[in-house]
Amino acid sequence: MNIKEYQKLSTRTAPFNADPKNVFDFQNILVNYAAGAVGEWHEYRVELDKVDTKSEEVIPMKLVNAIESEIGDVMHYVINLLTILKVDVDEEVIKYRQNPTANQIEIALANILEVPKKYVFHGHELDKEKLVDAIYTIIVHFCKTYEFAIEIILNKNIEKLKLRYPGKFNSEDSVKRVDTK
Length: 181
Fold this sequence. Notes:
Elements: H1 3-10, H2 23-48, H3 61-84, H4 91-96, H5 102-122, H6 128-145, H7 150-164, H8 171-176
């Protein structure tokens, strides 16, 4: 599954199918998905920090799966942020951007939260360009860092979401989390 296909398929489980019809719903999903992206990034880093970089032992498959699952979750949120903003994934941007530094990632994560906060709670205009740039920083990081596995990771994420939400997103299925049992 390529990233464009993923963008289309992942909207099935986004609130409002990532297409809110009014300003209140737009603001709601924008803040929800911005917070989700940063929260899932933290969970990804927690799993990644379990890798012993000094050891020559093979990383246990359970840990590999946990890392991949968190990557898929982050990608769900950032890709759907693009969809909410009515931006189609541009594979050329991903192809030609360099893998960001740790500092660039930190700035991007801050902007993914800061831009919606200023828009929703402080009454600023939505700085769409700054937000899209921050989102691409995260997407590029995963696509470059996990180049050979990213399509598999995205496919696993869609399968997990299909299991968790057989129909579309709803709170009851979110709480049940049948995919984690």
